Amino acid sequence: MELDLIRRLYGKGAGIYDAVFGPLLDRGRQAAVEAINASDARSVLEVGVGTGLSLPLYRHDLRVTGIDLSPEMLTKARERARGLEQVDALHEMDAQNLAFADASFDAAVAMYVAAVVPDMGRLFGELRRVCKPGGSILVVNHLAAESGVLGAFDRLMAPASRAMAVRSDLKLKTLAETAGLAVEGVEDAGIGGYIKLVRFRNRPG
Ligand SMILES: C[S@@+](CC[C@H](N)C(=O)[O-])C[C@H]1O[C@@H](n2cnc3c(N)ncnc32)[C@H](O)[C@@H]1O
After folding, report:
1. Is residue 70 a contact partner of residue 14, using CB atoms and an 8 Å limit?
2. What pLDDT score was predicted for residue 152?
3. What would the pLDDT profile of 21-61 be if each residue is shown by its tens digit?
4. Which residues line ligand 1 (CB under 6 A)?
5. By CB distance 3.0 to 4.6 Å, which of 38, 87, 98, 164 could disulfide with 81?
């Protein structure tokens, strides 16, 4: 899907996003941020930060930068970030073309965005580039069964997924191959295992 179309979809959906996808997807956000909070990372990049639902969860001494394609989603994120000392900056930016220098961040997080970007290979190329060698790259997403058979919850979620341009057929094997990194761990992160937290370690320099 084209970037303009994705931008338009999230522009339209920004007003209802938190009500529809807030609590439903919270466990995954918590799992990823808990992992970051427990690590020795200080500077964190969150791509596809959306309305900033994860921002209050980060430890207050971290330096968090969020980016998103949608100005409307970012407006909500900026309201939410008011008074949060851990939020360094929120930028309108394409996660496939990041305006940051190499090795700018200790860790990078992508929550519910890997299956939205048009080119996941470019997304991971950028995450590997801006994350320091050896840093954590965390992905939270629904992963489809390897058999390719859609589950009941997939069918239930299909209209909402389509409305938000989310591909529901992303498999762990595809994610790992595209990331070009070894998977360090996979854990259930909500909705009875429908959502997974996948931990990658960036290549050493
Ligand atoms: C399903 S929402 C997830 C938002 C947030 N991470 C959360 O946990 O609720 C996907 C977000 O990714 C953003 N997005 C989609 N494609 C993007 C891209 N190429 N670059 C940056 N953000 C993108 C959308 O605008 C939207 O805010």
Report:
1. yes
2. 72
3. 999 999 999 999 999 999 999 999 999 999 999 999 999 99
4. 6, 10, 21, 25, 29, 47-50, 53-54, 67-70, 73, 94-96, 111-113, 116-117, 164
5. 87
Q: What confidence tier does 149 reach under pLDDT thresholds 50, 70, 90?
A: low
Pocket residue to mutate for ligand 1, from 116, 164, 170, most atoms within 8 A of Cβ = 116
Query: What is the residue whose two structure tokens read 């990658």?
Result: 200
Q: Are strands 195-201 and 183-188 parallel, antiparallel or unpaired?
A: antiparallel
Give the domains, in start order, of the chain with CATH numbers. Answer: 3-201 (3.40.50.150)
Q: How many angstroms is it from 113 CA to the middle of ligand 1?
A: 5
| Dihedral of the alpha carbons of 116, 121, 124, 125, in degrees to the nearest 10 | -140
CA-closest candidate to residue 116, choices 136, 96, 98, 131: 96
Minimum CA distance residue for ligand 1 atom 12: 48
pTM: 0.95
- CB contact set of 172 (below 8 Å; sequence gap of 6+): 143, 146, 183, 186, 196, 198
The answer to whether 68 and 49 have CB atoms below 8 angstroms apart is yes
